[in-house]
Amino acid sequence: MFRIRRCTRIIKSLRSYYTVKSNEAPKDPHQVAKQIYSKIKATGPITVAEYMKEVLINPLGGYYMHRDVFGESGDFITSPELNQMFGEMIAIWFLNEWSKVGSPKPIQIVELGPGRGTLSQDLLRVFDHFGALQSASLHLVEVSPVLSDMQARRLCIQSDNIIDKKSVIHRQGISHQGIPVKWYRQLEDVPNCFTLLVAHEFFDALPIHKFQKTKDGYREILIDIDPCKEYSFRYIIAREETPSSKLYIRSNETREHFEISPESLVLIKKIAERLEIDGGLALIADYGHNGSGTDTFRAFKKHKLHDPLVEPGTADLTADVDFEALSKSATEAGGVITFGPTTQRDFLLKMGIEHRFKALKQNAKPEQIDGLEFGYKMMTESNQMGERFKFLALLPAVLEKLLKKYSVAGFH
After folding, report:
1. Contact assessment for residue 154 and residue 121, using Cβ atoms and an 8 Å cutoff
2. CA–CA distance, 318 with 233 (Å, rounded to integer)
3. I need a labelling partner for 98 at 20 to 30 A (CA). Which of 10, 197, 202, 294 fits?
4. CB-based contacts of 365: which residues, under 8 Å, 6+ apart?
5. Arithmetic mean of pLDDT, 235-258
6. φ, ψ for residue 223 (rounded to 5)?
């Protein structure tokens, strides 16, 4: 996610759908706060992970569940929303690596947390251009009804909600290219098949546990009721060890403050198992660090930093992804190998975004050039998204000899 600090004219020239309207947020701005307040009152302080789940995906008032959170009118902007080049580079990466292993079919393109469906839209367009959608299907993992509806409107000729509560599919349709599109609430429900999986700005929203070094050793940071103000909260340090501090703290840890996302580590293992058993490729793009991050938990509202404990449910909660931890968890069983993390700037430049930018600029209308240049600089410049965002690739370990001979595109 990234804050916008440019004039409205340029912002509106990026992608024309920044003013998409969706269901309104709950009328009571304190709805989520009241639920968290009641929970803490009944059971005591909660972990940051519990707090994040309630704030982001609570069915009644969760941040992602009732609104369009992207673009100028939302709280943050993502690379696919800037312009088509980002999605095109990712599509070319998948096509390139897929061709190295003989372009096996059938394939399924899987996106975790597809946002407005913009990245998947670009992927399908490029795949279709190269005639690569025969025996293909698109599978989207999404929990938000509002975002699922937006994705369907963008990607499909027609789609329908699945009313059958026994079905793991909660929506299905046909894309503009004529391939099946299906929606799920969790990766485990996606069928087993050769998979091209992308997760862009997905892991940063998964729940984290926060820990602080004290004189008694590491203690977990919890969230409690603030007695000074109604429906407000504060951080406290657990007096004793919690289950999380017993399970997740490494013996060689030295940081004063750090965060762990067990849900991320479990998910990356599931992705690795899928690639090992069924074959496939995975590309994870997010902002993060390589095991050195400390206190990164924060909130964004209207493109500005916001106190995560104030008005929960009205702002996005996020934390930097620990790519070192993801890579270790993915490779632990030996079924996959990882490449990266590498910076977004390096990845995009190695994939040829500079040449694509020049070609688009040469053929652009005068009123399109400002937006095109703005998007390119935002994605690639070191002081913008270029260094903050990282890419990590996962491929089956059986390809190791092949990949030593033909290096993975976009990575050192």
Report:
1. yes
2. 18
3. 202
4. none
5. 93
6. -115, 130
161 versus 2: which is more confidently predicted? 161
Task: Report the C-alpha gap between 74 and 22 in whole angstroms.
Answer: 11
Q: What is the mean pLDDT of the chain?
A: 90
Residue pair 10/374 in contact (Cβ under 8 Å)? The answer is yes
Contact between 281 and 99 under an 8 Å Cβ cutoff? The reply is no
Q: Could you please report the per-residue DSSP string of 309-348? A: TSSTTSSEEE--EEHHHHHHHHHTTSSEEEEEEEEHHHHH
pLDDT in tens, 194-203: 999 999 999 9
Q: Check residue 178 and give its pLDDT.
A: 97
Q: How far apart are CA 89 and CA 347, in angstroms?
A: 9
- Alpha-carbon distance 92 to 90, whole Å? 5
86, containing H or E segment = helix 85-100
- Do 300 and 75 touch, CB atoms closer than 8 A? yes
E strands in 248-398:
257-260, 280-289, 298-301, 304-306, 316-318, 321-322, 336-343, 389-396
Neighbours of 292 (CB within 10 A): 10
Q: Which residue's entry shows tokens 């001979």?
A: 405
pTM of the model: 0.91
412 vs 337, more confident: 337
CA dihedral 145, 179, 88, 265 (to 10 degrees): 50
Non-local CB neighbours of 315 within 8 Å, separated by 6+ positions: 63, 75, 299, 300, 301, 306, 308
20 CA to centre of own chain: 20
**Residue whose tokens read 């004039």:** 7
Q: Are 119 and 155 in contact (CB under 8 A)?
A: no
* pLDDT value for 410: 96
Please count the other Cβ atoms lying within 10 Å of the Cβ belonging to residue 406. 11
User: Among all chains, which residue has been given the structure tokens 């700005």?
Assistant: 201
Confidence of residue 214 (pLDDT cuts 50, 70, 90): very high
What are 361's two structure tokens? 């600029």
pLDDT at 7 over 50: no
What is the structure's pLDDT at 65? 75
Q: How far is CA 253 from CA 291, 332, 338, in A?
A: 10, 19, 23
